[in-house]
Amino acid sequence: xxxxxxxxxxxxxxxxxxxxxxxxxxxxxxxxxxxxxxxxxxxxxxxxxxxxxxxxxxxxxxxxxxxxxxxxxxxxxxxxxxxxxxxxxxxxxxxxxxxxxxxxxxxxxxxxxxxxxxxxxxxxxxxxxxxxxxxxxxxxxxxxxxxxxxxxxxxxxxxxxxxxxxxxxxxxxxxxxxxxxxxxxxxxxxxxxxxxxxxxxxxxxxxxxxxxxxxxxxxxxxxxxxxxxxxxxxxxxx
Amino acid sequence: xxxxxxxxxxxxxxxxxxxxxxxxxxxxxxxxxxxxxxxxxxxxxxxxxxxxxxxxxxxxxxxxxxxxxxxxxxxxxxxxxxxxxxxxxxxxxxxxxxxxxxxxxxxxxxxxxxxxxxxxxxxxxxxxxxxxxxxxxxxxxxxxxxxxxxxxxxxxxxxxxxxxxxxxxxxxxxxxxxxxxxxxxxxxxxxxxxxxxxxxxxxxxxxxxxxxxxxxxxxxxxxxxxxxxxxxxxxxxxxxxxxxxxxxxxxxxxxxxxxxxxxxxxxxxxxxxxxxxxxxxxxxxxxxxxxxxxxxxxxxxxxxxxxxxxxxxxxxxxxxxxxxxxxxxxxxxxxxxxxxxxxxxxxxxxxxxxxxxxxxxxxxxxxxxxxxxxxxxxxxxxxxxxxxxxxxxxxxxxxxxxxxxxxxxxxxxxxxxxxxxxxxxxxxxxxxxxxxxxxxxxxxxxxxxxxxxxxxxxxxxxxxxxxxxxxxxxxxxxxxxxxxxxxxxxxxxxxxxxxxxxxxxxxxxxxxxxxxxxxxxxxxxxxxxxxxxxxxxxxxxxxxxxxxxxxxxxxxxxxxxxxxxxxxxxxxxxxxxxxxxxxxxxxxxxxxxxxxxxxxxxxxxxxxxxxxxxxxxxxxxxxxxxxxxxxxxxxxxxxxxxxxxxxxxxxxxxxxxxxxxxxxxxxxxxxxxxxxxxxxxxxxxxxxxxxxxxxxxxxxxxxxxxxxxxxxxxxxxxxxxxxxxxxxxxxxxxxxxxxxxxxxxxxxxxxxxxxxxxxxxxxxxxxxxxxxxxxxxxxxxxxxxxxxxxxxxxxxxxxxxxxxxxxxxxxxxxxxxxxxxxxxxxxxxxxxxxxxxxx
Lengths: 238, 839
Fold this sequence. Notes:
The complex is a heterodimer. Chain A is an alpha/beta fold. Chain A has a single domain, classed as Purple Acid Phosphatase, chain A, domain 2, CATH 3.60.21. Chain A is built from five helices and 16 strands. Chain A has helices spanning about 5-10, 50-55, 65-80, 95-100, 100-110, and strands at about 15-20, 20-25, 30-35, 40, 85, 115-120, 135, 140, 145-150, 160, 165-170, 175-185, 190, 200, 220, 225-230. In chain A, helix 3 packs parallel to helix 5. By secondary structure, chain B is an alpha/beta fold. Chain B has five domains: about 5-230, Rossmann fold (3-Layer(aba) Sandwich), CATH 3.40.50.300; about 240-395, Rossmann fold, CATH 3.40.50.300; about 410-490, Arc Repressor Mutant, subunit A; about 500-570, no CATH class; about 710-780, no CATH class. Chain B is about 40% helix and about 15% strand. Chain B is built from 33 helices and 26 strands. In chain B, the strands form five sheets. In chain B, strands 3-4-2-5-6-1-7 form a seven-stranded parallel beta sheet, sandwiched between helices. A six-stranded parallel beta sheet of chain B has the order 8-13-12-9-11-10, with helices on both faces. A six-stranded mixed beta sheet of chain B has the order 17-16-20-19-18-21. The model of chain B is unreliable at about 1-10, about 570-575, about 735-745 and about 815-830 (pLDDT under 50). Classes of the chains: A alpha/beta, B alpha/beta. The interface of A and B includes residues 51, 62, 165 and 193 of A.
């Protein structure tokens, strides 16, 4: 298996978007890959959300961590990045890493090993995840890019953030389609949530007010086979 | 018949207390035979099912055993402890409980009985509930959900220790749903508290009374039955089908063509009740009637999405005979007796014959006078259906959906509820649950899995032991692990799970989304609101509203106007055509001698079909194929209801795809199914690739169904309902949405994760069972496929047939916005012309 071949065949020029001059792939599975940096960013894994809710009496299936890791394994196997940034809210709460089943912990450690792995601190997990390899940072600047969990209030060119779990909705022929999406205006990109139990918030919600230049805002909606780039004028609230 | 005199002699010895005899005398009445017989049987210790038509004095009959016993009971001495509930009355509708309180209070007062009667429903204020716990009324009128709540309270056993009778009203409608399962489990619990408890079931005529008789008593020994008293039907109702001067439309449900004739009928009567099948039809009809209402007659609207206050105002006005007409849906169905209704108008097809009988019963609540009703078919197939329903009503044929096995999500809820009341022993509870008829066949292994689910989620991955909701303690009893569990249970009790809804909030025009604080007009399904654009006009609560936007859990609207008005559709509103009626309709199609009873234009339509294509025999399935434009169409006429046809459409499309026929889409109605494809399907059938018989083979219900099911939105929708009932996810309450979508875990996500990791989890099993019976109507489809085996009649045509026109008009109906209406009308006109051979 030739890794570099496998990697390039995944990326067509047409799929690339520019963020503050850097070329990136918005992958339909919800990760961002920068081929020139061999850097993969993923946001809002919310690992152990199931057990977090179970503590409060909602016994929802305990398979979310396994499901999320499987999908993460798949994209990492495809791109073979040398740097991985988990953009905050990697665990649903501070005790998540400790509660994680031993088998899941092993799988996660195997993913981390051999790469530069950064845990960006999020509002759900402000502290470093217990006993896991990787470096915990508040934010991370690489080239013209700035990775942080919550988007900053003021405009920052090249900012890659998560936190808001964007989704977008369109209506065609009286039917409504809602999907998770990347939201970007060329200068800033907000990533979709990756975790199996993460919900989403429409990019037209007031929580996003002031974050984007509205004339260039695009929603890159996640499809089953590909990404759909939809301009703001087509989007619907709700 | 020879039993009759003996019965009377026996009845003479029945102790009807003196004040009752005097009261009957003062009214100039005498007790009816079935009332006395019910009393005698109840006094003999028997549980009884009373089947009687509306107006037969059913309610009084049901309460007589309680009232006579209470009349003879010694008075409570001062200082003595308060006595518990004597009689529990349970009805499917809150409104019915309120209505009974009023109707029963009158004779109780006139006879001078020392009996207290109170209601307890979701609307009862908490101080009154508390007081009812301390000083219980003799007769408590309530709903299945409230019974579940009472059982889940720590003092339940004491509260019910004096209980003698449970009276179940409208039993035929209660038992067919999950609410019936919850109620059956509650009854089993009550029998545990009070072993000698007697039940009295009141029901309209049903096809299988034995099912209800078993339901009323504990099933140990299995098959035990309550006694049965049947009262023959009263005067035959006077029902007619509107024979309109106007053109009866090919398709659609609005019955707009008949508005002038309906309005004239309203003018000729005192009070008219107009029933429709869906809320959207109600909105449309109401709007059209007011457009025609030159005399400004008081005409009101009543359906389940409207604000409670508005509904109560309409009910009150109705009781006071202040209204000339009320447009209503099933919220006004069942045995509610309001005002002086002298005409029932049924718009649209009545779907089930027993539903028709119920509704006709609204008019004129006296058994010996005929009720008067007019049926208004909205399209031509409905003309056939109305005719069949009419014949069925005269024949006295009644159908109710078959009873199904007790649902496991409901059992889960009950098990948790029992634990909230008191610690339980699993062996004892299992025996108790099997005493409830719907759960008589429950396997112990399944029961144990349910208990495991309630405790820790029942997952193969044992991760949640420390978060268990109930735990087995040292003594072997299962106990609630934390008081919080009981609190959560109380908020989520019940089996009615609404689809996510938004409040419709009215603001003044021109204020847009900034407008604040107007009245709430009612609720609308979220998925409908999501298809609207700001500025769109839609019909709701009898008004044209302008959609401004969605704010949190509210749909903000202002006064609207304009020509392109959208009518919300409500997913829950459609009833399937009953098996019985479907068979009647097929019979009518096949037998041209019966067409005389049909309006001339409809009979003409059938004659033309016979000439241009063919009409199937009663047991056959007709499949037509024809080209049109650059497409090839296949239309089948199974008459099995929209749900079964949808499922069939999905499965046939999959098969046609595999056969490379390149199918493009399908559409289903209650009567037929149309599939269109790029390739010539008739040629495929001829070459037997596959043959038509192979295409319709029953084996499609195996792997194809399984594969399709897993990805179907219907399964997700069903899963959500099961998960809420089983207590896995919480009900959504108004105001909770404020926390935003990103915080809660949606049922869809849970479904996806669970299906890929533990496909045989008990909740997924429950979901599949439900979906097969409900939204998919698989059993109906299976019956049909086996019935038509070897009896499929293929007719290839050069062009569309007259019978195919209605379904062809349904294609593309989802285009609701903007100017598309014009092109749809044009399309419709072209289709009709083509079929009649006028070009």
